[in-house]
Amino acid sequence: MSEKESGTVAGAVGEKKSGTVADAVGEQESRTVKNLAMNGFCAPKRERVKRKGRGTGSGKGKTCGRGHKGQRSRAGARRDGVFEGGQMPLTRRVPKRGFRSRLARVTAQLRLSDLQKLAAENAGEEITVAFLQKKGLLKNGIKRARVFQSGELGGVAVTVSGIPVSAGARAAIEKAGGSVAAEKPRAKPSKLAAKNKGDKGNKGKPPARGEEKKNSGGT
Length: 219
Fold this sequence. Notes:
Layout: H1 3-39, H2 90-93, E1 107-110, H3 112-121, E2 126-127, H4 129-134, E3 144-147, E4 159-160, H5 167-175, E5 179-180, H6 191-202, H7 211-216
């Protein structure tokens, strides 16, 4: 075989190999694109950034779209969503009703059915706040409890102590043969504390007319 023929054969083989490789690469790329399309992937769209201060012909030059003077043309200008130009905003015009008790955040509500379960599992036990905490019925941060009429006791006698009880719940407990101990009254401020509290209001005020003479003993 001559050199010319051998070169022709080698070229044909090389072209065939390169074509096969190119076809394989193209097929792999098409598969990748197809898989991406099937999986819902796509190149992220990048929005053009507004270029400000690049001449008057851009539409955002010189004042950069902020206008001349005023609050909103300055750096750091901010307005609340309720601002209405200085007039009384709507959030302050409408009347307010009701309130949210702070004690409700630390008070748990107990039903009569809850008391029935406790009495069935712990016969003869007095139900107090410490007992409820020990049994894990009060979450962290809960310091008080209150029993209201919901559910039934089923004739089980329950003894409740140191826990406020609604009128309906008290009647149901006493009807079932149980008892409700009175809640500990809140400590009243001492007379000395009340006097000091009253003196704070008059601190720094001049004595009333005639009081100065009485204190000094004058006539």
